[in-house]
Amino acid sequence: MIIYKLPEKCTVSSLPQGCAMALGNFDGVHKGHQRLFELAGEKGHKRAVWTFTTLAKPGVAVPYLTDMQAKLDLFCRYGLDYAVFEEFEDVRDTEYNDFVAKYLVPTFKPSRVVCGFNFRFGRRGAGDAQALCALLAERGVECEIMSPVFFESKAVSSSAVRDAVLMGEMEQAMALLGHPFALKFPVVEGKKLGRQMGMPTINQDFPAGHIIPRHGVYACTVTVDSEVYLAVSNVGTRPTVSGGASHVNCETHIIDYEGDLYYKEIKVEFYGFLRDEIRFDSIDELTAQINKDAICAKEYFACNSRR
What we know:
Structural class: alpha+beta
CATH superfamily of the largest domain: HUPs
Helix content: 25-40%
CATH topology of the largest domain: Rossmann fold
Shape: elongated
Number of domains: 2
Largest sheet: 7 strands, mixed
Radius of gyration: 22 Å
Distance between the termini: 37 Å
Strand order of the largest sheet: 2-1-5-4-3-6-9
Strand content: 25-35%
Oligomer: single chain
Number of helices: 9
CATH class of the largest domain: Alpha Beta
């Protein structure tokens, strides 16, 4: 278990007594999660979030939207005071009543706990939100269950965000998230063909288990040293230059930027789908298309005012 004090992101040994705790996986940290954070703070308590470093469900391959670091960054963004990250394997076999009686209450001493209407906990998810409130009430801890948050008559959920990302519908994903879908991975060395073409790119690999958006080209922004640049990103196998390789990555041309970003963690935010990934017959055709994509990205942001 790791406990962070935010926004400094420094670790501490314990939470101050009397925090309000929001419980959940919080994949994506979407608008429903943000409403839960607001609910936790309605009575003026310091706000803490309890979540997982990873979520490993045996036999279920559900790609994740946000890793631990991405969650931490978003928790800071939305004003939380503390973040508790627990290893899923350390608590997965805990009976649901023991989770409350032997772990949650004695470890964190919360004055208030909030969760979503569909929250499950304990071994095999045997405990639900109502059971959590009942067990906490026996111990004098206030508990509140949040109703679903809706967007266009549908409940906001991590699953809905995943569906949007997998379909390349980044505007829909952003509407559900309240922020753009983003990647923040180390820049790895590529074939350096972009530099030879006069338009250098950065390459980023997707960690195992991370969601991979629909293959294609996107209008993006890239943050370098607190400066935000417009960009075009290609998610896919780069068929023109890869020689038929199946390795999927994100390759980004940062418009009007020059510099060496190798091995730095760079944030790429996705705003709109521009076109499918296609194979060109020559490098010259690819170069011409990237120039067109850059123009399209500039027009996209000019029309949508989302930079």
